[in-house]
Design goal:
Elements lengths: L2 H17 L7 E2 L1 H11 L1 H6 L3 H11 L7 E2 H16 L6
Antiparallel strand pairs: 1-2
Helix pairs in contact: 1-2
Pfam family, one: S_100
Keywords: Calcium, Metal-binding, Repeat
GO molecular function: calcium ion binding; calcium-dependent protein binding; transition metal ion binding
Length: 92
């Protein structure tokens, strides 16, 4: 597999691993999402000034308002964080 294909496979595997820990295996509950963030993105949580910021982030990910994060919502988070970390400004 190419590096990009490997990255995509890792995204899917990571989501599936955490989503399978309780309830619906196709979505992340708040508990599952927090566990994923704590273990897979610890720098993000350390950067948060308070726990309420993490809760706001999780709530903001739930675009359809079903109180769970589906794979599409998860990918938006990863893409947004990737863009933020990449820190390239478009040329004007």
């Amino acid at each position: 597999m190419t590096q990009l294909e490997t990255a995509m496979a890792l995204l899917m595997k990571t989501f599936d691993t955490y989503a399978a820990s309780e309830g619906n295996k196709d979505t992340l509950s708040k508990v599952e999402a927090k566990a994923l963030l704590e273990k897979e993105m610890p720098g993000l949580l350390k950067a948060a000034k308070n726990p309420d910021e993490v809760d706001k982030l999780l709530k903001g990910l739930d675009f359809n308002g079903d109180s769970e994060i589906d794979f599409n919502e998860f990918v938006v988070l990863v893409a947004a964080l990737t863009c933020a970390c990449h820190n390239r400004n478009p040329k004007k």
